[in-house]
Amino acid sequence: MFGSPGSGKGTQAKLLKESLGLAHISTGDMLRERVASGDAIGRSVASLMQAGELVPDETVNRLVEERIEQPDTVNGFILDGYPRTVQQAKLLAELLVLRPVRTIVVHLVVDYNIIIARISGRRQCPACGTVYGINSSAPNTVGVCDKDGAKLAVREDDREEVVRERLRAYEQQTSPVLAFFKKSGIPCWDVPAAGITPQAIATGIEALIRKERGEAA
Ligand code: ADP
Q1: Are residues 145 and 128 in contact, defined by beta-carbon separation less than 8 angstroms?
Q2: For 168, which DSSP code?
Q3: Ligand 1 pocket residue status of 52, Cβ below 6 Å
Q4: For residue 215, what pLDDT is reported?
Q5: In this structure, are residues 210 and 217 in contact, taking their beta carbons and an 8 Å threshold?
Q6: What is the structure's pLDDT at 64?
Q7: Distances, alpha carbon 212 to alpha carbons 18, 125, 216, in Å
Q8: Which residue among 32, 86, 157, 173 has the greatest number of ligand 1 atoms within 8 angstroms of its CB, and so is best to mutate?
Q9: Could you give the CA distance from residue 89 to residue 23 in angstroms, rounded to a whole number?
């Protein structure tokens, strides 16, 4: 699942995980868990994440390498937020070479101005982690989590100055990964991912993947 911050990778991955029976591997979530636990990895990446910068390739590579060994990945998995540099993409290619998997890149394409509006409207439940947006994914009551009633908060790195840095990191370090995928012969689908509900976007992606798998729609 490829796309800029705020393009909806996490939302799409969660919907597709359910409908397609795939594991969801989010490096952002894994890193935030480490930061919350305060372990050695978490302590080493906290300030970089807070500044909106990428964490070192070796750190995320190690997390992903361990994660894809877990049994829930046998029927396939969705990588969300990884690879984010060409170096990470090269390691991933090595990790996958011995696995019977086919790789498809789903590129969520969203206009820059919509990205800014989405991220500035995004709120998260500090208790259960649910993310709310504006429009279709807004909570029932403004500022309150539908699931547990906790007061919603702005994600630490969704503050405006940090968002600017995340978008800069995306442009400079992550967008070249798309060219790398294409050069490696991996199919890349450009999926327009704004203006319709997340569910409708997911339904479209699901149909494409089922077709690739040779399943009936
Ligand atoms: P978003 O895609 O909206 O920026 P994520 O939750 O995917 O949010 O990532 C949050 C932060 O975690 C990033 O800004 C970065 O600091 C770190 N991070 C996540 N994945 C990677 C990765 N593959 N490589 C380096 N840093 C990462």
Answers
A1: yes
A2: H
A3: yes
A4: 86
A5: yes
A6: 97
A7: 18, 36, 10
A8: 157
A9: 19
In this structure, what is the dihedral angle of CA atoms 163, 165, 170, 171, given to the nearest 10 degrees? 120
d(CA 163, CA 136) in angstroms, rounded, equals 22
Q: Which 3-state string (H, E, C) describes 159-172?
A: CHHHHHHHHHHHHH
pLDDT of residue 98: 84
Residues 6+ apart with CB under 8 A from 65: 91, 95
Return the bridge partners of 149, or none: none
pLDDT at 90: 96
> Cα–Cα distance between 8 and 53 in angstroms, integer?
19
Going by alpha carbons, the residue nearest to atom 18 of ligand 1 is: 28
Encode pLDDT of 6-34 as tens digits: 999 999 999 999 999 999 999 999 999 99
* 45 CA: nearest ligand 1 atom: 16
- Distance, in Å, from the CA atom of 192 to the CA atom of 189, rounded to the nearest integer, reads 10
133 lines ligand 1 (CB under 6 A): no
Quote the CA–CA distance of 123 and 47 in Å, as a whole number: 21
Q: pTM for the complete prediction?
A: 0.90
- The residue type of 186 is I
The structure tokens listed for 177 are 């990964």
In this prediction, residue 217 carries a pLDDT of 61
Token couple for 92 = 């991933």
Q: Which residue has the tokens 């203006």?
A: 195
Residues of the chain where predicted confidence (pLDDT) is lower than 50:
none
